[in-house]
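PROTEIN DESIGN WORKSHEET
SECTION A - STRUCTURE
LENGTH: 370
TOKENS:
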């Protein structure tokens, strides 16, 4: 294992140049964003959780919606989880919403409403990793902790020409140590914001603005014409494909949904009753014949009205392929399962669904009368 002594960040030259020019760039090019400059830790935390794995443009309306509905942490703590999930609907990575809610309750009721004011206290919160803890510590409390995320990996690896893979423990230690060394300890909030903005808007993954870059005179990737080479990763992400068959039982104005409660993707979101296929999308009749629904449907007349086209949704480690089977019942479905729930079709929009199902519902909006 790599020891701390093996990392010699002093071997990377032009550190002062990097810091100075980065801050010069920030003076002239920073993005005005609603949460910037705020010292209210609740608002900083909220914005940082929303922005995890999410672009600013996508997260912004969610931030406004949350602040308007939950102006302070107690409002969020006292909300029903279904409401929090509904407000989060479409943003993805739903564990963030569950953790946000759990943490709001913890701070409101276990910490007497007082947000932790130290890096370790913040890092202890559910859903907060080292990056988010550094961001909150510096933005809300001016503590000297450098952020290290995808933007920072990219900017530092390009400027300093570092080809140590960022997904190795050696890479993580090296970039963290270098980022901490480069941090302007007098203005950690401004410095952290500068490197995040620089990576997001200037030194972007594709087509970085090298020609107008204040750092290009000493940027190793630019000077060696190897920008596409950085940052380096050791492994490729592999994705597992899963096949979901959604059963949409219709009876008059009624429709059946269920809450996903297992330790799996989309926990606590709603969906239609679903059968997961093994290795492929399966023919509908064969699927119903062999499923737990057969007993439930036996004795009740039904007809399969339509089968949708396949919908595809990519997650970090999974690819979901789904079809929607619309089934018209001739008499009401009676199930003793507490899992499924009968609702009126017009109330579908009150529940939070994964984006995949939202896409189907949008396509079918006329049919489902939403
Ligand atoms: S010169 Fe290009 S690659 Fe180097 S820091 Fe500037 S934008 Fe990034």
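SECTION B - SEQUENCE
RESIDUE ASSIGNMENT:
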């Amino acid at each position: 294992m790599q020891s701390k002594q093996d990392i010699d960040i002093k071997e990377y030259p032009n550190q002062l140049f990097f810091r100075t020019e980065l801050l010069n760039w920030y003076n002239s090019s920073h993005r005005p964003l609603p949460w910037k400059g705020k010292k209210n830790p609740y608002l900083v935390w909220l914005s940082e959780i929303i922005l995890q794995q999410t672009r600013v443009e996508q997260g912004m309306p969610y931030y406004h919606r949350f602040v308007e509905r939950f102006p302070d942490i107690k409002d969020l703590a006292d909300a029903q989880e279904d409401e929090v999930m509904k407000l989060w609907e479409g943003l993805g990575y739903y564990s963030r919403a569950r953790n946000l809610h759990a943490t709001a309750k913890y701070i409101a009721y276990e910490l007497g409403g007082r947000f932790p004011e130290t890096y370790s206290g913040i890092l202890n919160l559910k859903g907060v990793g080292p990056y988010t803890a550094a961001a909150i510590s510096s933005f809300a409390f001016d503590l000297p902790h450098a952020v290290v995320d995808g933007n920072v990996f990219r900017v530092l690896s390009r400027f300093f020409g570092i080809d140590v893979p960022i997904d190795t423990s050696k890479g993580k230690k090296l970039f963290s140590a270098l980022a901490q060394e480069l941090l302007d300890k007098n203005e950690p909030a401004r410095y952290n914001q500068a490197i995040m903005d620089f990576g997001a808007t200037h030194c972007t993954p594709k087509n970085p603005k090298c020609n107008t870059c204040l750092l290009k005179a000493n940027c190793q990737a630019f000077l060696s014409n190897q920008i596409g080479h950085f940052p380096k990763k050791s492994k490729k992400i592999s994705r597992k494909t899963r096949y979901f068959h959604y059963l949409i039982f219709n009876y008059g104005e009624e429709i059946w949904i269920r809450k996903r409660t297992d330790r799996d993707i989309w926990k606590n979101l709603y969906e239609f009753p679903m059968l997961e296929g093994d290795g492929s999308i399966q023919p509908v009749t064969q699927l119903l014949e062999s499923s737990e629904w057969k007993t439930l449907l036996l004795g009740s007349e039904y007809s399969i009205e339509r089968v949708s086209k396949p919908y595809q949704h990519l997650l970090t480690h999974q690819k979901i392929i789904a079809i929607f089977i619309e089934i018209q019942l001739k008499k009401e479905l009676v199930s003793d399962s507490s899992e499924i729930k009968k609702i009126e079709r017009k109330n579908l929009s009150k529940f939070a669904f994964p984006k995949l199902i939202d896409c189907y519902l949008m396509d079918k909006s006329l049919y489902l009368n939403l």
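SECTION C - NOTES
The CA atoms of residues 211 and 222 lie 10 Å apart.
The domain at 240-368 is CATH 3.90.79.10 (Nucleoside Triphosphate Pyrophosphohydrolase).
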